[in-house]
Write a structure and sequence with these properties.
This protein is mainly α. The protein is built from ten helices and two strands; from the N terminus they run ααααβααααβαα. The model has no long low-confidence stretch (mean pLDDT about 90).
Length: about 260
Protein backbone atom coordinates (compact mmCIF):
# COMPACT_ATOMS: atom_id res chain seq x y z
CA UNK A 1 0.00 0.00 0.00
CA UNK A 2 1.45 3.34 -1.08
CA UNK A 3 1.71 6.38 1.16
CA UNK A 4 -0.97 8.20 -0.83
CA UNK A 5 -3.30 5.20 -0.51
CA UNK A 6 -2.64 5.11 3.25
CA UNK A 7 -3.54 8.77 3.71
CA UNK A 8 -6.58 8.29 1.48
CA UNK A 9 -7.80 5.46 3.73
CA UNK A 10 -7.03 7.53 6.81
CA UNK A 11 -8.99 10.46 5.40
CA UNK A 12 -12.00 8.27 4.66
CA UNK A 13 -11.72 6.59 8.06
CA UNK A 14 -11.76 9.93 9.89
CA UNK A 15 -14.85 11.03 7.95
CA UNK A 16 -16.65 7.82 8.84
CA UNK A 17 -15.47 8.25 12.44
CA UNK A 18 -18.12 10.99 12.64
CA UNK A 19 -20.65 8.44 11.40
CA UNK A 20 -19.41 5.98 14.03
CA UNK A 21 -19.87 8.57 16.79
CA UNK A 22 -23.42 9.14 15.56
CA UNK A 23 -24.12 5.40 15.49
CA UNK A 24 -22.66 5.12 18.99
CA UNK A 25 -25.18 7.72 20.15
CA UNK A 26 -28.19 5.97 18.64
CA UNK A 27 -27.39 2.26 18.91
CA UNK A 28 -25.33 2.14 22.08
CA UNK A 29 -26.46 5.14 24.13
CA UNK A 30 -30.17 5.23 23.26
CA UNK A 31 -30.58 1.58 22.22
CA UNK A 32 -32.36 2.90 19.10
CA UNK A 33 -31.84 0.82 15.93
CA UNK A 34 -31.59 3.72 13.51
CA UNK A 35 -31.28 3.33 9.74
CA UNK A 36 -31.76 7.05 9.10
CA UNK A 37 -27.98 7.27 8.66
CA UNK A 38 -28.24 6.04 5.07
CA UNK A 39 -30.36 9.12 4.35
CA UNK A 40 -28.87 11.73 6.66
CA UNK A 41 -25.31 11.15 5.35
CA UNK A 42 -26.17 12.19 1.77
CA UNK A 43 -28.55 14.83 3.18
CA UNK A 44 -25.63 16.58 4.87
CA UNK A 45 -23.65 16.30 1.65
CA UNK A 46 -26.51 17.64 -0.47
CA UNK A 47 -27.16 20.63 1.79
CA UNK A 48 -23.45 21.45 2.04
CA UNK A 49 -22.97 21.02 -1.70
CA UNK A 50 -25.85 23.23 -2.77
CA UNK A 51 -24.85 25.84 -0.17
CA UNK A 52 -21.27 25.97 -1.44
CA UNK A 53 -22.46 26.28 -5.05
CA UNK A 54 -24.70 29.15 -3.90
CA UNK A 55 -21.66 31.01 -2.52
CA UNK A 56 -22.07 30.25 1.19
CA UNK A 57 -18.93 29.80 3.29
CA UNK A 58 -17.98 26.08 3.36
CA UNK A 59 -17.88 25.90 7.16
CA UNK A 60 -21.32 27.48 7.38
CA UNK A 61 -22.42 25.00 4.71
CA UNK A 62 -21.24 22.16 6.98
CA UNK A 63 -23.23 23.68 9.83
CA UNK A 64 -26.34 23.82 7.66
CA UNK A 65 -25.80 20.19 6.74
CA UNK A 66 -25.62 19.32 10.43
CA UNK A 67 -28.90 21.15 11.09
CA UNK A 68 -30.57 19.23 8.27
CA UNK A 69 -29.27 15.95 9.68
CA UNK A 70 -30.52 16.90 13.14
CA UNK A 71 -33.96 17.60 11.64
CA UNK A 72 -33.99 14.14 10.06
CA UNK A 73 -33.14 12.59 13.42
CA UNK A 74 -35.91 14.56 15.12
CA UNK A 75 -38.45 13.30 12.57
CA UNK A 76 -37.38 9.68 13.16
CA UNK A 77 -37.60 10.09 16.93
CA UNK A 78 -40.95 11.89 16.67
CA UNK A 79 -42.44 9.05 14.63
CA UNK A 80 -41.43 6.65 17.40
CA UNK A 81 -42.07 8.51 20.65
CA UNK A 82 -45.14 10.49 19.60
CA UNK A 83 -46.83 8.30 16.98
CA UNK A 84 -45.82 4.94 18.41
CA UNK A 85 -44.17 3.61 15.25
CA UNK A 86 -41.55 0.94 15.84
CA UNK A 87 -38.00 2.31 15.98
CA UNK A 88 -36.72 0.34 12.99
CA UNK A 89 -39.77 1.09 10.87
CA UNK A 90 -39.67 4.81 11.73
CA UNK A 91 -36.03 5.05 10.65
CA UNK A 92 -36.72 3.14 7.42
CA UNK A 93 -39.60 5.50 6.59
CA UNK A 94 -37.38 8.55 7.05
CA UNK A 95 -34.46 6.97 5.19
CA UNK A 96 -36.63 6.21 2.14
CA UNK A 97 -38.24 9.66 2.26
CA UNK A 98 -34.82 11.32 2.39
CA UNK A 99 -33.87 9.78 -0.94
CA UNK A 100 -36.51 11.91 -2.63
CA UNK A 101 -35.64 14.91 -0.44
CA UNK A 102 -31.96 14.71 -1.35
CA UNK A 103 -32.79 14.38 -5.03
CA UNK A 104 -35.02 17.44 -4.78
CA UNK A 105 -32.34 19.47 -2.97
CA UNK A 106 -29.62 18.75 -5.52
CA UNK A 107 -31.98 18.94 -8.50
CA UNK A 108 -30.12 16.04 -10.12
CA UNK A 109 -28.60 12.68 -9.11
CA UNK A 110 -25.21 14.38 -8.62
CA UNK A 111 -23.86 17.84 -7.92
CA UNK A 112 -20.25 18.70 -8.96
CA UNK A 113 -18.13 20.91 -6.70
CA UNK A 114 -15.04 21.10 -8.88
CA UNK A 115 -13.59 24.59 -8.76
CA UNK A 116 -15.72 25.60 -5.77
CA UNK A 117 -14.36 26.84 -2.45
CA UNK A 118 -14.25 24.10 0.22
CA UNK A 119 -13.06 23.84 3.82
CA UNK A 120 -9.74 22.55 2.44
CA UNK A 121 -9.10 25.24 -0.16
CA UNK A 122 -7.18 27.70 2.03
CA UNK A 123 -4.77 25.16 3.57
CA UNK A 124 -4.42 22.34 1.06
CA UNK A 125 -1.88 22.64 -1.75
CA UNK A 126 -0.58 20.22 -4.36
CA UNK A 127 2.40 19.47 -2.12
CA UNK A 128 0.57 18.77 1.15
CA UNK A 129 -2.86 17.74 -0.12
CA UNK A 130 -2.43 14.04 0.58
CA UNK A 131 -1.99 14.63 4.35
CA UNK A 132 -3.36 18.11 5.11
CA UNK A 133 -6.95 17.00 4.51
CA UNK A 134 -6.43 14.30 7.14
CA UNK A 135 -5.25 16.95 9.61
CA UNK A 136 -8.27 19.20 8.99
CA UNK A 137 -10.76 16.35 9.24
CA UNK A 138 -8.92 15.00 12.29
CA UNK A 139 -9.35 18.33 14.08
CA UNK A 140 -13.08 18.28 13.32
CA UNK A 141 -13.36 14.71 14.64
CA UNK A 142 -11.41 15.66 17.78
CA UNK A 143 -13.73 18.59 18.45
CA UNK A 144 -16.76 16.35 17.96
CA UNK A 145 -15.29 13.72 20.31
CA UNK A 146 -14.49 16.24 23.05
CA UNK A 147 -17.94 17.79 22.71
CA UNK A 148 -19.57 14.37 23.11
CA UNK A 149 -17.34 13.54 26.08
CA UNK A 150 -18.39 16.78 27.75
CA UNK A 151 -22.07 16.29 26.93
CA UNK A 152 -22.17 12.77 28.36
CA UNK A 153 -20.75 14.11 31.64
CA UNK A 154 -23.59 16.62 32.03
CA UNK A 155 -26.94 15.93 33.68
CA UNK A 156 -28.66 15.79 30.28
CA UNK A 157 -26.06 13.36 28.98
CA UNK A 158 -26.37 11.10 32.00
CA UNK A 159 -30.16 11.21 31.66
CA UNK A 160 -29.82 10.16 28.02
CA UNK A 161 -27.56 7.27 28.93
CA UNK A 162 -30.04 6.21 31.61
CA UNK A 163 -32.85 6.34 29.04
CA UNK A 164 -31.01 3.91 26.78
CA UNK A 165 -29.90 1.63 29.61
CA UNK A 166 -33.25 1.23 31.38
CA UNK A 167 -36.23 3.14 30.00
CA UNK A 168 -38.66 2.32 32.81
CA UNK A 169 -36.18 3.14 35.55
CA UNK A 170 -35.37 6.45 33.85
CA UNK A 171 -39.08 7.30 33.68
CA UNK A 172 -39.46 6.38 37.36
CA UNK A 173 -36.68 8.86 38.18
CA UNK A 174 -38.63 11.65 36.47
CA UNK A 175 -36.57 11.79 33.27
CA UNK A 176 -38.46 12.94 30.19
CA UNK A 177 -37.37 9.98 28.07
CA UNK A 178 -39.23 11.21 24.99
CA UNK A 179 -37.21 14.42 24.89
CA UNK A 180 -34.00 12.54 25.61
CA UNK A 181 -34.66 10.28 22.63
CA UNK A 182 -35.44 13.22 20.34
CA UNK A 183 -32.35 15.17 21.42
CA UNK A 184 -30.12 12.10 21.15
CA UNK A 185 -31.35 11.25 17.66
CA UNK A 186 -30.82 14.86 16.59
CA UNK A 187 -27.21 14.81 17.82
CA UNK A 188 -26.60 11.40 16.24
CA UNK A 189 -27.80 12.35 12.78
CA UNK A 190 -26.17 15.79 12.90
CA UNK A 191 -22.78 14.10 13.31
CA UNK A 192 -23.55 11.70 10.47
CA UNK A 193 -24.64 14.61 8.26
CA UNK A 194 -21.41 16.46 9.11
CA UNK A 195 -19.52 13.44 7.86
CA UNK A 196 -21.51 13.62 4.63
CA UNK A 197 -20.78 17.35 4.27
CA UNK A 198 -17.04 16.75 4.57
CA UNK A 199 -17.19 13.69 2.33
CA UNK A 200 -18.62 15.53 -0.68
CA UNK A 201 -15.93 18.19 -0.33
CA UNK A 202 -13.16 15.59 -0.42
CA UNK A 203 -14.75 13.82 -3.40
CA UNK A 204 -15.41 16.96 -5.42
CA UNK A 205 -19.16 16.49 -5.62
CA UNK A 206 -22.32 15.15 -4.03
CA UNK A 207 -24.12 12.07 -5.27
CA UNK A 208 -27.50 10.62 -4.39
CA UNK A 209 -25.98 7.17 -3.74
CA UNK A 210 -23.20 8.07 -1.27
CA UNK A 211 -25.34 7.02 1.69
CA UNK A 212 -25.64 3.37 0.64
CA UNK A 213 -24.03 1.21 3.33
CA UNK A 214 -23.36 4.10 5.72
CA UNK A 215 -25.01 2.36 8.67
CA UNK A 216 -23.02 -0.82 7.98
CA UNK A 217 -19.73 1.08 8.13
CA UNK A 218 -20.82 2.88 11.30
CA UNK A 219 -21.81 -0.35 13.02
CA UNK A 220 -18.62 -2.08 11.90
CA UNK A 221 -16.55 0.79 13.32
CA UNK A 222 -18.36 0.60 16.66
CA UNK A 223 -17.98 -3.17 16.91
CA UNK A 224 -14.31 -3.15 15.90
CA UNK A 225 -13.55 -0.33 18.33
CA UNK A 226 -15.34 -2.00 21.23
CA UNK A 227 -13.56 -5.28 20.50
CA UNK A 228 -10.10 -3.73 20.39
CA UNK A 229 -10.62 -1.41 23.37
CA UNK A 230 -13.33 -2.74 25.70
CA UNK A 231 -13.98 0.18 28.04
CA UNK A 232 -16.51 1.69 30.42
CA UNK A 233 -15.27 5.29 30.48
CA UNK A 234 -17.02 7.39 27.86
CA UNK A 235 -13.88 9.20 26.64
CA UNK A 236 -12.27 5.84 25.92
CA UNK A 237 -15.41 4.50 24.23
CA UNK A 238 -15.57 7.46 21.84
CA UNK A 239 -11.85 7.06 21.10
CA UNK A 240 -12.40 3.34 20.42
CA UNK A 241 -15.11 3.91 17.79
CA UNK A 242 -12.97 6.53 16.04
CA UNK A 243 -10.09 4.06 15.97
CA UNK A 244 -12.49 1.37 14.74
CA UNK A 245 -13.56 3.50 11.76
CA UNK A 246 -9.95 4.19 10.77
CA UNK A 247 -8.94 0.53 11.12
CA UNK A 248 -11.96 -0.57 9.08
CA UNK A 249 -11.03 1.70 6.18
CA UNK A 250 -7.36 0.72 6.41
CA UNK A 251 -8.30 -2.96 6.22
CA UNK A 252 -10.34 -2.28 3.08
CA UNK A 253 -7.43 -0.39 1.52
CA UNK A 254 -5.02 -3.22 2.34
CA UNK A 255 -7.40 -5.68 0.68
CA UNK A 256 -7.72 -3.49 -2.42
CA UNK A 257 -3.96 -3.08 -2.59
CA UNK A 258 -3.26 -6.79 -2.24
CA UNK A 259 -1.56 -8.40 -5.23
CA UNK A 260 -3.58 -11.58 -4.68
CA UNK A 261 -6.72 -9.77 -5.81
CA UNK A 262 -5.24 -8.76 -9.15
CA UNK A 263 -5.80 -10.89 -12.17
Amino acid sequence: MSLIAFFGALESGLIYALVALGVLMSFRTLDFPDLTADGSFPLGGAIAGISIVSGIDPWIACGLGMLAGAAAGVVTAFLHVKLGILQLLASILVMVALYSVNLRIMGAPNLPLLGEETVFSSLVTNENGYWMRCVIIGVVVLIAKLALDWFFSTEAGLSMRATGSNLRMAQAQGINTSWMTIIGMAISNSLIALGGALFVQTQGGADISIGIGTIVIGLAAVIIGETIIPAKRIWLITFAVILGAVIYKLFIQVALSSNTLRS
